[in-house]
Amino acid sequence: MVNILVVDNHKAVGEGIKLLLEQEGNFHVTVVRTDEESLNALSQQTFDIFLFDINMPFLKDLALLKSVKKLNYDVIKIIYTGYDIEPFFDILVESGVYSFVSKTASTENLIAAIHSALDGNAMMPVQLLQRLKVVDRQKNRMDLMNQLFQYDLQKNELALLKLVAAGKTNKKIAENLFVSLRTVEYRLTKIFKKLQVHSRIEAVEKIRDIGLL
Predict the structure, then answer these.
(1) Does the predicted TM-score (pTM) go above 0.70?
(2) Which of 50, 119, 157, 203 stands the most exposed, by the fewest C-beta atoms within 10 Å?
């Protein structure tokens, strides 16, 4: 039997979730409405799953999640909400949240998320994952631009360094970039100075270390 604590400030919603879960699976569900009731229940009984609805304003709910984490209750936390939690994703994960389920999801998806969490696997809606991937790509681009700015590297200099890393000679680099051999040598001298290195090998190692390769 899987013991689940459902926290929802709307009594009818909480009781509805209880009914659905107990009908469909091997679950015993306890429903509470307030932070105080949640902490009291967790202190008096062992639960496998903490199914939690995020409401706005968000800070009050975050405080409860942090309290649960601080008190070290051995319970898997799943967010079950109709709100867009993307802006709060990182802080929710830091607070110990394991999975995210939309209130628009079917009962089957909710049950699947519970079983997945019990097996040690996290779940989230595909739409949220896609948006987070976009945010991550944007962050990676910003990190790259910050690194370029820090060392004052131009994009054409980074392109040249990538050819160096690929083992190209100065002559081959000049052909690839459609510039003269002297231009390649001049740019390499500038790059060495910016990176504070003295050789092609050191330059390649440096840009690998800072994540530009």
Answers:
(1) no
(2) 119
